[in-house]
Amino acid sequence: MTRTLFVTGASSGIGAATARAAADAGWNVALFARSKNSLENLAAEIGPAALALPGDATQLEDQERAIAQAAAHFGGIDAAFANAGRGMDTAGTVEGDAEDIAAMIDLNVKGLLWTARAAIPELKKTRGTLVLTGSAAGRMHIQGSIYSATKWFVHGYAGNMAEEMREWGGRCTVVAPGMVDTPFFDEGKPDKLQAEDVAGAVMHALEADPRATIREIFLMPNN
After folding, report:
1. Which of 116, 134, 178, 212 could form a disulfide with 174 if both were Cys (CB 3.0 to 4.6 A apart)?
2. Cα 165 from Cα 158, distance rounded (Å)
């Protein structure tokens, strides 16, 4: 039976690469992001195994609606990848713009929580897997970094969810990459990790034998 993966932040970068990798591995993919055109283009590229579901990850009702549509369309949800996230235009507690700080926290923390909240009722039915995009920045102290602090939350939450989900046979993994060459950065980083590297780590966690939970994958570029 074909399995289904729900991906947030699916319109580009790590999310899009993971959707392609999952589809290549025989999964159905439910694509969630704000960019309707980008999602529809990616869904057309992947084919019938993909479903475009535009929405705002910071809005619980958008994610709940998308999960329901994906479950109805594909017959269930076997995994969810809470990948949507962002940084700040100007770093710093005082230097950063207050609205920019709030928007980043909304997406990196609340948006990730809403993915888990919306997906878990479906994942319980399939003993499924929740994957969260963490960061190397969430495994170290970086001077004044609010972005890093949001990723510390992700790492702590992933461990807590792994303990909760094991009670009903579910799994939770945090994938923590270092610098990745994605649209997250204004300038290209071709010598760093590629989105496909992170997608491979996500697929490794998803396709591990059900007896094993890979709780964290930490990726760093060699350069």
Report:
1. 134
2. 10
Instruction: Tokens for 178, please give them.
Output: 């270092």
Identify the CA nearest to 195 among candidates 17, 5, 3, 12: 17
pTM passes above 0.90: yes
Q: Name residues whose C-beta falls within 8 Å of residue 106's C-beta, 6 or more positions apart in sequence.
A: 58
Residue 19's CB is within 10 A of a number of other CB atoms, namely 28
- Residue 174, pLDDT > 60, answer yes
| 3-state SS assignment for residue 129 | strand
Q: Residue 112 in 3-state DSSP?
A: helix
Phi and psi at 52, nearest 5°, equal -85, 130
For 35: left if phi > 0, alpha if psi spans -120 to 50, otherwise beta; the answer is beta
Six-digit token string for 136: 């190397």
In single-letter form, the type of residue at position 151 comes to K
Indicate the average pLDDT of the chain: 94
